[in-house]
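Example record

The entry below shows one chain as it appears in the dataset: sequence first, then structure tokens.
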Amino acid sequence: MKALVTGGGGFLGQAIVRLLLERDIEVVSISRSFHESLAELGVEQFCIDLADIEANHPAFAGCEWVFHVAAKAGVWGSYAAYYSANVTATQNVIKACRAHGIRKLIYTSSPSVVFDGNSIEGADESLPYPEHYDAPYPATKAIAEQEIVRANDANLATVALRPHLIWGPGDNHLVPRIIERGRTGPPGAGTSGRTYFISQGDPRPLWDIVNAILVCADIPEVKRHIPTRVAYAAGWILEKLYASLQIEAEPRITRFVARELTTAHWFDISAAQRDLGYEPRISIEQGMENLRAYLQNN
């Protein structure tokens, strides 16, 4: 039994790789760069840009499943770069699955594909895509997700999972960003062809989670806040400024981040529980304890 994980060197990708290996499944990884941690696990690695990959690429040969995790995340960058990494790459993965007769494709999407700037409380997968996005990441992830759903047929079973706020020991994206901002101060029935929200199933106010992560790093909790309109306006101004000056670094605040940090968003995971047998295995409290121990040792 053999599986391919795209983005196998990332935080989520490595977690999936380890779970597959625990089940005695041979794993192949595609990433842009070589990862020593995967080599130590005995994982065969192919270093290539998925936006340029050919359908007959040997990485897919003999695989029964593909876990398509690789993506360009973040909140800043050109639409073209996000489209290439998130849409073109996904289209190429689908083509490769068909060329190699792979029957199952599991795609890592994002709840942000249905975020329209307003609070989302207890919504399920019937929530529609918004007409407008404030950032290229959710816009291109939404296009890619729809490509995955449309690709489902009798020969290729596809499913799109929307995990909400992935964090924990080893996280190299969300937790480091929260810690860095904390140190410098805040700116203010069938499964195939379907999408599923994945979360802890334990809704908490966003800033409770952010502050809990800061406490894990022995950083004071955020107490001060600025009005939503001010944060959104600041994001708009900085986006225009950075774009006009062609600054590649991420602005301190963007419109998308301002909306994300000032609205509620939690989701009904009953569909994943019913169809996938999904149940959270680690509580938020235990996750925070694990994270604190990790940060103290790293």
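Notes for this example: The CA atoms of residues 55 and 200 lie 36 Å apart. The mean pLDDT is 89.
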